[in-house]
Design brief:
By secondary structure, the protein is of the alpha/beta class. It is built from nine helices and 14 strands. The chain has a six-stranded mixed β-sheet, with helices on one face. Strands 7-8-9-10-13-14 form a six-stranded mixed β-sheet. Strand 8 and strand 9 form a beta hairpin. The protein starts with a strand and ends with a helix.
Length: about 260
């Protein structure tokens, strides 16, 4: 299998997975990069997977379906361009001969889902849309802090070797925040250097790995004493506080961070 990050707009990635003949694409907000890749690589688009309804993830769906006949699969209860097969948590789907599982991960949107496969060429693969970013997470447009925390906990529980295919190139800005939260986290500093080199070479910082994210992502670490201490030092958290309250304070800090 070949995994390709197709840049779109200012910072989106449209993920293309193919076996040399057939392909699936995830969250095609723009059809043109996908059509160009299909032509260049001589591929047939079999399936379109969608994680949530935002336009930068769905804007190219209708054009691609009309041009290729690809089947569209997306979250139940969200306005995805029809016809679309709607999926709920726990649903399973075989695409490119691979078994995919639907994970409900609300928070960024109410019906947001992720697509997870336990074994793609020897490692698990996760398409997480805008729920999880490298060193960050999505804004809470439709869900609650408790929902997003539970969603991130669920994603953090997949095997540490899981490739994490986020939908935006936000890594460097997220790492700056991660360093502000945990200035003593040596792995954050080291990963920042790696990602700076990748971006200087016009290369994506993604996919990440969930094991790495557990060590560098403040939103997967909101229960850690170092993160709680940073929130208290900022005057954003007063103990005793619930896990959801600490997560909400951390997300609000990130919203205001420059």
């Amino acid at each position: 299998m070949n995994l390709v990050a197709l840049p779109a707009f200012a910072d989106n990635y449209l993920w293309l997975l193919h076996d040399g003949h057939s392909a699936l694409v995830v969250d095609p907000g723009d059809a043109q990069p996908v059509l160009a890749a299909l032509q260049t690589l001589h591929l047939r688009l079999a399936t379109i997977l969608v994680t949530h309804h935002h336009r930068d993830h769905t804007g190219g769906v209708a054009t691609l379906r009309e041009a290729t006949g690809a089947a569209v699969h997306g979250p139940w209860g969200e306005p995805i361009p029809e016809p679309c097969v709607a999926h709920r948590d726990g649903d399973r789907l075989t695409v490119l001969g691979l078994p995919w599982q639907v994970l409900a991960v609300p928070g960024h949107t109410a019906g947001h889902i992720a697509w997870y496969c336990e074994d793609v060429d020897g490692a698990p693969l996760l398409f997480c849309g805008d729920t999880l970013f490298s060193a960050g997470c999505g804004r809470l447009f439709e869900g609650t802090p408790a929902q997003m925390l539970a969603s991130l906990d669920r994603l953090a529980a997949v095997p540490e070797a899981t490739q994490v295919c986020c939908a935006h190139e936000y890594t460097l800005s997220n790492l700056r925040f991660a360093l502000a939260v945990e200035p003593g986290n040596a792995e954050v500093a080291e990963h920042t250097r790696r990602c700076e080199a990748l971006r200087a070479a016009a290369q994506p910082t993604l996919p990440s790995r969930i094991g790495l994210e557990r060590r560098i992502n403040p939103f997967l670490r909101s229960r850690e004493p170092t993160v709680r201490a940073a929130l208290r030092a900022q005057g954003r958290l007063h103990e005793p506080a619930t896990d959801a309250e600490a997560f909400a304070a951390l997300r609000e800090w990130k919203n205001e961070f420059r």
